[in-house]
Every structure is written in C-alpha cells, then in structure tokens.
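Dear colleague,

Thank you for sharing your sequence with our group. We've completed the structure prediction you requested, and as agreed, I am returning the results in plain text so they can be pasted directly into your records. Please verify that the sequence below matches your submission; if there's any discrepancy, let me know and we will rerun it promptly.
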Amino acid sequence: MCSRAPPQLIEPLDRLTTIEPGPQRLTQLNGDGTVETVEPTMVGVVLFGVAWAALSDFVALHTADSELTMVIGLFLTLPVLFLTAAFFPRPELPGWLRAVSRANPAAYVIEAARNVMNFGNDWAALARTGGILAATLIVMLAAATAAFRHVTR
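Please find the predicted structure tokens below.
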C-alpha cells in the first residue's frame, strides 16, 4: 500500500511509525513519501513465536519438570538470539557465525524486520522468510504433537 505524503511531513521526520485511523494498521512513512505497512513482519514474529512455544512444549513434555523446562529454555534462547545478525549485518559476521545464522530461523525474522523498517517491503525476501518460518513451524508442531501423543498414551 503506497500513498503520497505532504513534503512538510517528510522534511522534519525522515521516518515515522504511526497507527493510521480507521482499520488499525502499523505503518511507516518513508523519506520518499511512500507509506509501507509492516504487517508481514508481524506475521513472521507470530509464526516464530508459535514455533518457539511448540519447542518449549516439546521440552516440557519430555522433561515433565517446569523448572528444568525453564532452564533449558533460557539456555536455548540466548544462543538463538546471539547467533543471528541482530547486532551486526550478516556480511560482517565471522564465517562460522554466518553459517550458523543461515540455519537459525530467528535470524530471518530479525533481518526481515530490519529490512522492512529500513528499506520497505521486499516481497521476495518476506516470502523466503515466511517459507522458512512455515517449515520451522511445521517441524516444531509435529514434534510437540508427537511428544504429547507419547505422554498421553
């Protein structure tokens, strides 16, 4: 969705994130006057959140201990976050970290959000991120469902 914004809005603020009146949509006003929506990024965040919750359920069903589940979750969360390009662009990462980042679904969510906020919607990159997250979600939900069936037998 693109529309033109008056130049007096663009000069003082290069980027502005607002909530539009009417149907609530999170938007971004770009320097060239176009308005980009960031719903695709939010969809990616939700997909990753559900996949992460399924992984947590899988661990909880196998350990049957809430404290151990929380400890394992913390030990997984930090490496997943820090082994992404969240703090440095992927080309600037060391080779081994770049390889790990390519296999980390969180890296795709972070890069998609960064690209939408900085450059606008790149539908090819968003589709690739959506595909990777959908595959991750399918694997995690299948594992959690199998663990639930195993525990309830």
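Summary note from our side: The chain has six helices and three strands.

Kind regards,
the structure core
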